[in-house]
Specification:
alpha+beta; 6-stranded antiparallel sheet; 23% helix
Length: 142
């Protein structure tokens, strides 16, 4: 299955006192992966985010299978799990790059709602067509 991939090298600032990656960073990397996807495949949506559109995260999760440490290289693979008129669910896999093989170290999920800001209020709206078209090739399932 096709995925949008974000490659990340872990820095010391992302580790805790015992030397492994602090758990919240996995969620940060999900957000970074989403941002880069928009930059690369739906730049018009980025412009709309400055004009009242909001992609609101309604649920976020991550399951951890192995620890990551400073200077580990991890590839975050994003796929579309589900899409309706105004909502979508994205799946994330975290793969540590090894010398001989890659290792699945975590899985995550984000659910998002498309909203529009008007007069200080948020109201539900359909996903932009550019975004639905950009995500369609990345549909997959766990």
């Amino acid at each position: 299955m096709r995925s949008y991939d974000y490659r990340h090298e872990v820095g010391f600032e992302e580790t805790n006192i015992v030397g492994n990656v602090y758990f919240v960073n996995h969620v940060r990397w999900q957000g970074r992966c989403r941002e880069l996807f928009l930059r690369d495949h739906a730049p018009g949506v980025l412009a709309e985010l400055n004009d009242g559109l909001a992609l609101v995260t309604t649920n976020c999760s991550c399951s951890y299978y192995a620890e990551l440490h400073a200077f580990d290289v991890v590839t975050i693979r994003m796929r579309l799990q589900e899409m309706t008129e105004g909502r979508l669910t994205l799946d994330f896999e975290y793969w540590r790059t090894g010398p001989d093989d890659d290792e699945l170290v975590a899985r995550g999920e984000q659910r998002l709602a498309c909203m529009r800001r008007e007069n200080g209020l948020l109201s539900a709206c359909p996903l932009p067509g550019e975004l639905t078209s950009a995500l369609a090739p990345y549909r997959g399932a766990r």
